[in-house]
Amino acid sequence: MKMNFGQRVPAFLQAGLLVATCFVSGGPASADGPYTQGALRNYNTYCVQCHGINRNGRGVNSRDMSVQPRDHSDAKGMGDIPNDEIFHVIKDGGLAVNKSVLMPAWGNVMNDEEIKELVAYLRFVCNCGSGK
Amino acid sequence: MKLSLLAALAMGLVAAPAVAADSVGTGILKSQCISCHAIVKPDNASLARLWERKGPDLYYAGSKFNRPWLEKWLQNPVRIRPAGEFYTKHIKGSDKEDVVDESTMAPHVKLPKADAEAAAEALMALTGPTDLLSKGAFKGEKVSMSMGAMFFNKLRGCAACHQAKPGTGGSSGPELYTAGERLQPDYIYSYIKNPQAIDPHIWMPTLNLAEPDLQRLTGYILQLSASEGK
Predict the structure, then answer these.
(1) Is A101 within 8 Å of B154 when comparing Cβ atoms?
(2) For A20-77, how does the pLDDT look when each residue is reduced to its tens digit (9 = 90+)?
(3) How would you classify residue B201: left for phi > 0, otherwise alpha for psi between -120 and 50, otherwise beta?
(4) Domain boundaries, position B82
(5) Which of A37, A43, A61, A109 best tests the B interface by mutation, with the highest count of B CBs <10 A?
(6) Is-contact B87 A49, C-beta < 8 A?
(7) A132 located within any domain
(8) How far is A91 from chain B (nearest CA, A)?
(9) What's the pLDDT tens digit per position in B153-200?
């Protein structure tokens, strides 16, 4: 089922936990669900400032950026990037994959497990397959 | 009856020295500040707690701020974080990029001069854990502003989240054009080096910067106050 991502976006901030609960079989964060509540919260803490509350790369910081943040709702653009590369970019930053320094390394803030969960969350946001 | 009177007296005797020990400034902190700011190090340093807090922690204010700035700012508070604290609670989508939702921003408490001075004195006494900062780490060397700007804007990407000039740069972090007036040099150095060690789970990344970068960026930010903020 293709969802209208733009229309359900406000729920991410206003009722983020409720949304997460709906998608993890009605219970707490679960490895079986498409993403964990922890990943949602980490996204809303660290990623939204640049990638935006609509997950479209238009965060509050993006106005004056020389390189625009990636649009995480872009199924084609995100679908072309394998999971291990997304993991690498989050952990080690844009420079590690010859991209912009404006994407910082988050490996000192989130551990590997949290970053893996964030990758799974990004797959949910882009609605672009498993990335494997 | 006698017992309750004795109990009341005992409470009075116990309470009296405690009240006397509290300075006027500490009283102001307790009555006006602690609903939003922690003046004692919280036991809980989780991400959930970061979401719950309403303002930056002040239990290490004495290691962070410059007293003259505190006294001035408390009398005339001007927004330091363009998108508030915490930014994600104060933004909304728009046709273009996300914008600050001004309707969610509340003005900071404003103190009369005497209260501001007393509160500043009490805040400066809150120095936090002894190992919070790398004391004496900033060497105080002058930095070329053009070189500093290049690192700040392009090479290290600080401008993505911070403003070095009013109105230009990111909004999720505090503006830095008054940082030199506001903050102590070793605090700036230590925070850039490892923000998470000072402010757990904060939305500023730890960039593993080399020593020359830390010196250069600290010096640049300190000099911004003189060149841009006046």
Answers:
(1) yes
(2) 433 433 333 444 468 999 999 999 999 999 999 999 999 999 999 999 999 999 999 9
(3) left
(4) 24-124
(5) A61
(6) yes
(7) no
(8) 11
(9) 999 999 999 999 999 999 999 999 999 999 999 999 999 999 999 999
CB < 8 Å to B201, chain A? 45, 109
- CB-CB under 8 Å, B160 with A102: yes
B73 and B111: one domain? yes
Q: Looking at beta carbons, which residues of chain B come within 8 Å of A13?
A: 88
Q: Is the pLDDT of residue A11 over 60?
A: no
- B157, B172, B201: residue with CB nearest A49: B172
Neighbours of A88 (CB within 10 A): 18
Cβ-Cβ contacts under 8 Å, A73 against chain B: none
B14 is a domain residue? no
Contacts of A72 in chain B (CB under 8 A): none
**Of the partner residues B156, B171, B206, the one whose CB lies closest to the CB of residue A60:** B171
CATH code of the domain in which A70 resides: 1.10.760.10
Is residue A44 domain-resident?
yes
CB contact under 8 A, B194 and A108: yes
How far is Cα B119 from Cα B132, in angstroms, rounded to an integer? Answer: 22
* Residue B72 located in a structural domain: yes
Higher pLDDT, A20 or B109: B109
Instruction: Round to whole Å and give the CA distance between B52 and B50.
Output: 5
First-residue to last-residue Cα distance in chain A: 20
Count, residues in chain A: 132
